[in-house]
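To illustrate this point, what follows is a protein record of this kind.

___
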Amino acid sequence: MALVYATINKETLLHICSNKRVSTDFIIKKTKLNAAKVPLWLDAANPSLPTIKQAKVLATCLHIPFAGLYMNPVDIPLKRIPNIKNLRTMQGTSVPDDSALNIAIVDILLERDFLTNANKEFGQLVPTFAPNMPSEDDPIKWAQAIRTQFSIDLGTQYRCPSPRQFYLYLRNCIENGGGFVHCFVDVPVETARGLAIYEDPLPIIGINDEDRPPAKSFTLIHELVHLLKRESSLCNDMTHMATIAGEEVFCNAVAGELLVPTKALKIILRDKQFTAPYSVSDIQKIANRFSVSREVIIRRLLSIGKISNIEYDTYTDLFNQELEQERERQQIARKQGIKIGIPQSISRDAIDRTSPSVSKMLYHGFSEEVYSKQDVARHLSIDQKHIDKFLMEVSKWIR
C-alpha cells in the first residue's frame, strides 16, 4: 500500500513549535517518530512531509487539532508565554527541557481566554480578585485572612467525605473569589506541581493533573499565596527542604496552616485516642479528619512541637517506602492485566481537571443550545458518550 503524505503547512508547524517553545528533541522523544525525519519536517525549505498518521501524532504531541497543521500560521490560536519566576528545585545539573510545560502553559492561557470570551458572549460577570492580606508575613494571619476572603469553612472541610471532595470544594471557593483554577496534563509531577500566573482579572492557578487530590489541595493554596502576593511562579517542591527558596517556605507554611489550623489540630490531639508516640494509624485518622495527606500532618505535628525532627524523618522514610511499594504493586498488576484501585471515570476526570467556571459555562452554553454535545466533548477532549454524565454532575452546581 502506498503511503499517504500529509500536505501540511510547514510554516505553521514551525510557528507552533516556536511560539510554544517546543524543542525538536522533545518531539522525537515524546512521539517516538523517526529521529532523522522529524528535523526535515521542521525545515520549511525541505520537501519531506510526514504521513497522515505521523502528522496526527505530531498534532497530538503539540496539543493542537490535526486540521490546524493545514492552516495558515496567523489563524492558529496561540498565546505568548509570560515571564514566570522559576522557583523549582531541579534534579541534577543539566538544563531541563520544558517543552511539555510550555505546551501546558499555552493550554491554560487559551482556556482562560475561552472563559473570558464566553463570559462576554453570555453577559456573565467575573468575580473580582482583590488581594487583601496582612502586611506582615505571618503564616497564621495569612491563613486566617485567606479563609475569610475566600469563605473556606473549617466545618465544611470536616464534612468532606474524601480528599477529592475537599479539593473540589477549595477550588470552587477560590474561583468564587475571582481566581481561575485549571489542571494541566502531560507534564511529569517532578517537572512542575503547580504554577501561578498573575492576570487581572482571573489570575491563574495551574495544577498538575497527575497529582493526588491531597497534593492538589496543598498546591492550590500554595499557588494562591503567590497570586495574593501578585507573583507569577513555577513550583515543583512542596516539601520543607532547606534548599527551596524563601518565598516557597512561606507559601508552604501558609498552605499547611490553612489546611490544618494550629488551634484545630491541638484540639483534636487532646482526644485520648491520640497519645504520643503517634502510630501510623493515628496520623492517618488525623489526615482523614482534615482531608489532607499524612505528609501534611507530620509536618504540622513537627511545626507545633508534637514530634521531633528524628520522628519526622522516620515517618517520611516510612511513607516513601509505602508509596514505592504501592507503585511496584500497581506496576506488577498492570503487567498481569489486573485492574486495581478506583475504576476510571472519564466524566469524573474531566470534572477534576477542568475549571469549575469553564464547566458551568459549557453547561450554560449547552442549555442555551449554543454548544452541542459534540462541542462540549471536543472542548474537554473526551468522547461524546461521556458528556451526559459530565453535564448531569455540573447541573447539580447550578441548582
